[in-house]
Design goal:
The chain has 96 residues and is mainly alpha-helical. The chain is built from five helices and no strands. Helix 1 packs antiparallel against helix 4. The chain starts with 24 loop residues before the first helix and ends in a 6-residue tail after the last helix.
């Protein structure tokens, strides 16, 4: 006979990824689209060097490099929350 209580809570439900929510995806995506010229999405995700590179690229190209974070913001928003966390938070992939 098996008892359930504090030390043995009983059977646990299987992991349900439909309820998974990324804490950083929406903010990083919007920052990439709206403030990407300043590398805001990179700084927000903790990629300091890449944020500085983004600023320098925008200065050198007179703003043409702003298309890079714009595309990244769209990519962030269209991928699943779990995939975003795995790729950009856990594995720390810096570009695209």
């Amino acid at each position: 006979m098996e008892t359930y209580g504090y030390n043995n809570p009983g059977p646990q439900p299987a992991y349900d990824n439909r309820n998974y929510r990324s804490e950083k995806k929406l903010a990083a995506g919007l920052l990439g689209i709206l403030l990407g010229a300043f590398g805001a999405n990179k700084f927000y995700l903790g990629y300091i060097n890449e944020g500085i590179i983004q600023i320098v690229l925008n200065i050198v190209t007179c703003g043409l490099a702003t298309v890079i974070p714009f595309i990244e913001g769209i990519i962030y928003l269209t991928m699943s929350d779990e995939q975003f966390d795995r790729t950009y938070v856990q594995d720390r992939k810096p570009w695209f």
